[in-house]
## 1
Amino acid sequence: MRYVNGKTVSALALSLALTSAYSNAESVKASDIHDSMVVMDTHLDTPALLVQPGFNIMHAHNVEDDFSQVDVPRMESGGLDGGFWVIYTPQGPVTVEGFKSARDTAILRAMAIHKMVEANPDTFTLATDPKDAKAIADNDKKIVYISMENAYPLGEDLSLLDTFYKMGLRMVGPVHFKNNQFGDSSTDPNGQQYGGLSPLGEKLVKKANELGIILDGSHAHDDLLEDMIRLSKTPVILSHSGTKAVYDHPRNINDELLKKLVASGGVIHVNAYGSYLTELPSDPKRKKAYGELFKQMGNIAEMTPEQVAALKQKRKQIDMEHPAVRATFDDYMAHFLHILKVAGPKHTGVGADWDGGGGVERMMDVAALPLITERLLAEGYTKEDLQDIWGNNVLRLLTQAQEYAQSLK
């Protein structure tokens, strides 16, 4: 037995007390380091909520209540300074009508991002230059770079990329869930159409290079990613992807291709989308219930706040009757640590897919982001490594993209 503050305690109790004190001290240290850095995520799908009636990003929300994962109070709690806010358009028919509809959707998403910034000038600032990030964070504001997930809305008129560039676009991914006019998706159920980039896709790469826009290979087929690495004059990003070495899913990248990405100067940002992290059990009843709910939805942007609330209540009911089985934080970190081992901290970052399906147990919204910093410090990574991971790496890519575009002038 030992004595602590005049009281007798067992060796086991003393060991647990000391371990707890050490853990708390390490957690405080990690929190201080996390708060001292510019912390960015490269894939925030939150603009989809900005057009949703009743959603106010300035107010605190709860993922259990309304399924949202990003708002200003939680950004503050999680030390998230901002990142790349996504113009996302679902893949539709590759037709003139489809292009027009998608173009209108994309413009409305871009306008929603601008309205968020303009309505809250003391909180958000639009960023277009790599130097903007630190200046904005130092001014205690949130960083708003703009990216486009799925270039489908551009149709076959690449001059539209100029339009979106003028609206602040600084990252673009050619494809999403299915093949389109620019090339092959990693997940099209019908397989490949072009064997990588289409001829128009090759022109998209050239156009993005000329403007100084980062090219994003997430969702792209491996062959398309290889084409972009080969053709792009500046390094390519995977804004939200995982590793096949941990879980062999088409959305993830194998080590051989990851090494090619790194050798070209590219960066991979780690996704927290559960079904891309590990094999999750299928629940046919849950799938059926959600399918029926989605059929009833229509255009959520045209609903009243009361209708949106009723829809979310139905979703909560489905989750209660058929609970989701989620990937864990350890599943996420297994991808992260393997990628760091292969790519190194100068080619790795965070792109968790918030408000786009991302989230794992213990890390279901941006308030939990310090867990990543804490774990990486425990694994032996330094503050300098973390500064690269949380922001410097993607800013380097943006710098290289802009310097190349400037060199053409």
## 2
Amino acid sequence: MILDYLKAGYPALCVVTSEPHRAENIIRCPGWKFFTWDCLTGIRETSTLKAIEEIRDPVEAIRWLERLPDSVLVTLNLHLFMEIPEVIQGIQNGVPKWKSIGSSLIMLTPVLNLRPEIEKLFTVMDLPLPNDGELYDLQCDIAKHCHIKPNRKAARAAKGLTELEAEAAYALSAVQKGFFSTKVVSHAKAQILRKSGLLEFWEPTSIKELGGLDELKMFIKNRTKAFTPDNDSLPKPKAILLVGVPGTGKSLSSKATASLLGWPLIRLDISALKNSLVGESERRMREALKVIDAFGQSVVWVDEVDKAFAGVGSNTDSGTSAGMFGTFLTWMQETESPVLVMATANNISQLPPEFLRAGRFDATFFVDMPSKPERQEIIRIMNKRYGSEIPLEFADNLSGWTGAEIEQLAKDSLFDGLDKAYAAIVPLSRTMREEINALREWARTRARFANTPDGEPEESRKVRTAKRIKLPSPSNPILN
């Protein structure tokens, strides 16, 4: 990574990384002497850690490099001293001298924040996080000491962690489970989200807890093989949009999808990212998406996306929603990370047209009121969950009820009895009849239907049949 730049005589390089000690080992290359500086230990030889000079002042360390040809000084946390004028001047004075003697200054920094006086002098690059092979090699080293078998699946699950974080996750798994557990590694990855403060880590829900929606379940199950590690021929779905009536299981479907894929579930709350400071909302959105990319395999749940982007077409928030919306769309289109976005919406009319254009989502599903077979399945699930005793035949009385309303019925029936609980609940299909009908009309030609259809009746019309009567022939005297 660094070798070509050193051969070309680049005098100042900036490597953005949160792993300075790993970077020290990676960037070393033959032909140059490598030294490391920090404000506590001074200058030491990078490979042997041998102390060279007790220079703790950053300006003196920068000037020290001017005396050594074909040398590289790797600085740790030099970005913290960028407000000192002497440091800025030292870099400006040093660049032409370093270039003339074949030396270079490499600044390792977790954030890119170069001052305008020196930003043109530095060439910036990113140090990528450990790849699958490096994570597996690290796991093999730990396995030798712990006498346990390596697990490639757990190594793939660690993608997105730093070397130190992965090592800690492997060690914790070995202590708690006695083997390398994918689940323990995934919980360690949840710390990335907690530390960012921008995202939420949710527990997936078993697919058995989702009643009905067989068409949606089949769509997802048929595409799980595209996410297997050794399958590069099939296109990987990137996003699914669920549109429908509130309480019909859209959010639960997102949680169940994570369970079906065996992936962690990340909730991206776009409204919570908004900030009153100019440009801060867009920055927080970019940071959140960067964390998702680093996290690796995951289901990204964006709930009620219609409310989050409702202000895109207006100037009520000075373009904040439009800026966040553009950043999100670009990320959805360009990200190479193995993620599946599950977006839910109640009011499709509030979404901008560019959000719904062809190719943005792999599929748009309409989630309607549950059919009779689905209502019976939901009753079974709720009876098992809460210990209620709603008979399956009662599903005939619940036509037009959502899954959330059936769940509330199951809970209330434990206190008030089934008949009284049933009479107390007014379903949305009655209070929002016009809006639901309009949504169904929209979905008729624009979306797939996620629900299991009601069974067809045995006969579409009742026909009475009578015994066939043989008519008399013309020769019969009765006709004469």
## 3
Amino acid sequence: MISRRKMLKMLASFPLFGGIAASKMGMAASSKEASSASAERDLFEELGIETLINGRGTLTFLSGSLMQPEVVQAIESTSHEFANLYEVQDKVGERIAEMLNCEAAMVTSGAAGALTLGTAAAITGTDEEMIKKLPNISGPRREVIIQKRHRYSYDHAVRNTGVKMVEVESAREMEEAINDRTVMSLFFNAAAQFGGFEHTIGHEEFVAISKKHDIPSFIDAAADVPPPDNLFKYIDIGFDLVTFSGGKAIRGPQSSGLLYGRKDLIEAAKLNHNPHSDSIGRGMKVNKEEIFGMMVALESYLERDHEQQWEEWVGRTKTIAAEAEKVPTVTSERKVNSGPANHFPDLQLSWDQSRVQIKPEDVVKKLQEGEPRIEVSSNDEGLYITVVMMKPDQVGIVGRRVREVLSQAV
């Protein structure tokens, strides 16, 4: 058998063909060797970054979620060839729109990127000059209507376009606030959940008022799956634009998001987005691999057996609870967040602190500092553990470590 080295030497004796063939074989070999070397590298260890077990859920600072294997495969498989990014975004958008039963869709740089692009679309439409000038467009400052209790940190992404947020507290105030400067209305879907109140203007009435005055309505539902029905619900209610995060429960690329709804607005959002160089969204680049990955993640999410997955999550809470309850006075309670955001089965652990003499926040600290590093949270009742982002083989580890930390305080 002729060795690779000997073959390259033989081919090199042919001036043209040898040079090309040898080069290709050399590049192929180098590529294979580089790929093998890359697979063997532990970049976390190399850079001194400690990995962790995520018992807090889809928080961005903890990397959000882990991509499904099919998403990773989609990213890898599309990384070896060039393609026209306009065409990729258009074709993938068409497929996503089919899946979500809406007019049009696009992949964005997270839900925050979608908020900026959707607002930009409502302001500029397809006007090229306005697109180039945003956020410093001429004339009176444009306005976005929002319920006062819906103000939140992420509306900064809306304010990036230069708009003024106009706060209202009732349907009557909303009607009175709309004028010729109003370009959009914004509804933060989880506001009542986080604030502990009822929306002062409900979904249907909010949409109806917006339609009456011919202004686009936009709902931010970034973390609002499961259930998967929510992906369709807000279009059915009548919102013109909807955004969900791609990197939370859908388990797409962490830096991806979905913007979908009215076709004219989505087309305008694309004009405000990368790869258009003179646009507000140029820095919100989404590469082709992430676009494909988001599409495959949505396919996978919609095809998933969500009842089975829920039961698996419940089983994880039982496993951890069974270990923790081996410590005297420890009790457990499964708590289901009512939603719409982060609607998961979580675990609450409590104990008699006169017998198990450690505060919940100190348990959190010991788990963070232990081996392996585990991130959970605490509240007034005790330890709070979100199980949905754990790997299956990590569940028992969490239960054991919690038991060990509590046992040491008895």
## 4
Amino acid sequence: MSDQSDPNKPKKTIADLFQQLALAQEEEQSPAAPPKPMESYKFWKTQPVPSFDEKVESEGPIDTSKTPETVRQEPYPIHSSFEWTTLDLESDHDLDQLYELLYDHYVEDHDATFRFAYSRNFFNWALKPTGWRQDWHIGVRVKDTGRLIAFISGVPCDLTIRGRDIKSVEINFLCVHKQLRSKRLAPLLIKEVTRRVNLQNIWQALYSSGTVLPRPVSTCRYGHRPLNWSKLYEVGFSSLPPNETKASMVAKTTLGSEPKTKGWRKMEEKDISTVWKLYDAWRDRYDISQIMTKDDIKHWIYGGHQQDGKVIHTFVVEDEETKEVTDYISFYVLPFTVLQNPKHKQIGIAYLYYYASTVGLGKTNKDEENQELLKKRLKSLVNDAMIEAKKVDIDVFNALSSQDNTLFLDDLKFGAGDGFLNYYVFNYRTSHIDGGMDETDHDFGKNGSGVGVVLL
């Protein structure tokens, strides 16, 4: 992340980069800063979200007065220079325009050295799950030229929050052209996607931000594990720590060449039912989780429709005697394009996704004996997943402090990042959910978290 022409300018760390990439376009605020007064949030103070100082006496929806019949039937008014559009992700033209908008204007580091390298496969995976609706892929175009200058998406994402099932959507990819961010298009996009979701009799939505908005359900911290330290150093993505050499850093981050877990193999279509049962039982460990059907597992975790440029990678462990699948683990891939570097054009980035093991089924993180067994199992599974990631040219493996990740982050040499991810549920009031950090709300905790849902 340094200026390659200035050898004396210090390089930033992986953590610095992901902190920058976590910044939102609207109402930015450091996650570590105290909340601003509610009145300063011009948009959010008008929405059904809890205030920072609100005491939660009972959990549940905030506004229950509306019905689809009372929802505005027409799109919200927009400036005469612009027009609403519904993107057709079956169209190469619309996919190309979405790629260009996100590539140039979504998030990037302050030095404009790295950018997310989206692909058609990634859009098809992230925006077209089971039950997806085209009218929830909302754009704004310049009326005269047809240029796409803003976007927001919603996809089905039913939740369980502390035992209560909730019909919901996940809101993502809110993006406004950099030169138009003073036009208050972001709040308008949020209102429009809310309107379209409400027309389907859905009143809650899950979303995340690197910034503090009213009011997070939970906050998790990023962890980053270099898999190809030399390359990361060469592109300015990682720095050389004090009292270390390049050789020592390579040695510290080197993994084995092959997985060691007995029965380890790639997930196959025949495993979908078993993985679904594992997933569904495993999510009881958490206060907030996503409800998935077998079709959802096929899309989100198996991803068998993908061929070249595979986004989701999933592996299972099969008992050699019973032939039963006892564990699965997955990660998804979203690379960075590297600018202004003559040697490297891309950095491979993987994100730990969902996993489960029979070791933890029916147990909670209060069971200390089981936690030790689970810690050992997860260390083995994640280590082997990173080996598989290295085989597909992944240079950095990321994981949040969500799920039971804090059981292995330190031992597997994940560096604690400066980036935080805040989770929000629109039109829903709930008390705080443990995000896997210690009592300082800064360092990784030691015993897992209450967050069982993974957002892209």
